[in-house]
C-alpha cells in the first residue's frame, strides 16, 4: 500500500516510521528545505547547538526520552523549579523553589475537582467560566512555562494537573535536538 505523509515534523516522521513498519510504501512530503518541524537546531552561531524551536524532552515518561536513550544521546536533566519565575497574587516575582513552601494544599490536585472542558476551550475561558477559585501552584507553573492562558488548551492544562511526571522536570539534548 502506498501512503503519502504530509509534513516532516516529529508527528509526520513518526507516522512515516510506523507506516513503514506496517509495510507501507511511504512518501514523505515537506514544504521546507529541512525536516523537523518545530525542532530546529542552529549550529552556525556558536560552538554549541542553539535550539530555535523545540528545546526540551518533558520528563522521562515520554517516547522521545526513551528514543534518546536508545540512540545513546546525551541528556541534561533540567529542573525548572530552580529558576522559573512565577508571579504571585501580590504581583511579586519569585522562583518556583522560593515559593515551594507556599504551595501547601496544592500538592494533591484531583482531576475530579476540575470540571470537564467545553470542546476546544482556551485555558483563559475555562478559568473565567469556573469563577473565583484558587489556581493550583502546579497550574501557575504550567502557565509560566508556556504562554498567555488565551493561547493554551484547557484540556491539556487540566490533564497536566494530575500528571505525576510533570514534577520530574525536563531534559535537554546536549548535542542538539535535531
TrEMBL record:
* Record-linked PANTHER family: FLAVIN MONOAMINE OXIDASE, LYSINE-SPECIFIC HISTONE DEMETHYLASE 2
Q: Which UniProt keywords apply?
A: Oxidoreductase
Query: Which EC class does it fall in?
Result: oxidoreductase
Domain named Amine oxidase: residues:
10-84
- Write down the species: Meiothermus luteus
Q: Please name the GO terms that the record assigns under molecular function.
A: putrescine oxidase activity
Q: Does the keyword Oxidoreductase apply?
A: yes
Q: Which EC number applies? A: 1.4.3.10
SUPFAM superfamilies documented for this protein = FAD/NAD(P)-binding domain
The identity of this protein, by name, is Putrescine oxidase
